[in-house]
Write a structure and sequence with these properties.
This protein is mostly beta strands. The protein has helices at 32-35, 115-120, 270-281; strands at 8-12, 18-20, 24-31, 42-53, 61-67, 70-78, 81-85, 90-93, 98-102, 107-113, 122-132, 143-147, 154-156, 162-168, 170-171, 174-175, 184-191, 194-199, 205-213, 215-217, 220-222, 227-230, 236-241, 245-252, 260-262, 265-267. The chain starts with 7 loop residues before the first strand and ends in an 8-residue tail after the last helix.
Length: 289
């Protein structure tokens, strides 16, 4: 039986950028308020950089702010980012590392360039993915996964076409490094050049973000920061790059629940958003001290 290809539902060119704090010039490649169920179980993807920063004495970044009801996944390609949160977690991630933070019932955190990167300056390139949580888990306690580059399994593509770093989910028989609440995959893919065919599970919404190089998907050309959304039906994804490419492939079983979001909170009802603001104002998210 012939394996069906996933249908390309749309290709979206990279939007204009904006600043998050004073440390992260980002382009929001997708968000749930624009694409809704097509990207579920994912909510948002910010692509930061590549941007050159001059040396300085004052760290750049985003100060203390809250989250509730979802997870943030930060993937660093160049530079260093330091994190600290009200659950007592913290650390610095550099090239190849991943930080997977579950906000759950609520957390305060901050993200800044590391002290070393602040002093030296250099190229910053990273991506931050927001992952939704099912209603049953949204009020679970916060969780923090610091995933070093050498803890992420790497699988070579056939014929030397490149490699896949399995951040979450599975690639063939290889399990990813991160723990997740629902069935999903996050693959950090480097294509050296040529063609490759990926097997993405049937029933998974699939999103491909090109973070460098050139890529052709079903005859459509993608450039830096472009996004392709594929349907849940089928499982074959054919990619081609003459000069090489770096991309994130995110796939997952959709969470078939209402999404009501406001700023740093993503819940299921307006009443839950109001409750989140009440809890924030009452200090129930804790503080960084």
């Amino acid at each position: 039986m012939e394996i069906a290809a996933k249908e390309v539902l749309g290709v979206y060119h990279a939007p204009a950028g904006h600043w998050v704090g004073d440390g992260f010039p980002v382009r929001t490649l997708f968000s749930y308020d624009r694409l809704g169920k097509l990207v579920s179980p994912f909510l948002l993807l910010d692509y930061a950089g590549p941007s050159q920063f001059a040396p300085t004495d004052k760290p750049r970044g985003v100060g203390e702010h809250p989250h509730r009801g979802f997870e943030t996944v930060t993937i660093v390609y160049s530079g260093e980012v330091s994190h600290r949160d009200s659950a007592g977690n913290g650390g610095t991630i550099g090239p190849g590392d991943v930080q997977w933070m579950t906000a759950g019932a609520g957390v305060m955190h901050e993200e800044f360039h590391s002290e070393a990167f602040t002093r030296s300056g250099g190229l910053m390139k990273m991506a931050q993915l927001w992952v939704n949580m099912p209603a049953r888990d949204k009020m679970n306690p916060p969780r923090y996964q610091a995933i070093a580059s050498d803890a992420i399994p790497v699988v070579g593509l056939p014929d030397g076409a490149g490699q896949v770093r399995v951040i979450a989910g599975r690639f063939g028989t290889v399990a990813g490094a991160a723990q997740t609440w629902t069935e999903l995959n996050v693959w950090d893919i480097s294509i050296a050049g040529g063609a490759c065919v990926l097997d993405v599970p049937e029933g998974h919404n699939t999103v491909i973000a090109l973070l460098g190089g050139q890529l052709s998907l079903a005859g459509q050309a993608l450039g830096d920061g472009d996004l392709a959304i594929l349907g849940a039906a089928g499982s074959r994804v054919s990619l081609q790059s003459e000069s090489g490419a770096t991309l994130l492939l995110m796939s997952g079983v959709p969470i078939d629940e209402p999404i009501v979001g406001y700023g740093p909170f993503v819940m299921n009802t307006r009443e839950q958003i109001v409750a989140a603001f009440d809890d924030l104002q009452a200090g129930r998210f804790g503080s960084l001290g």
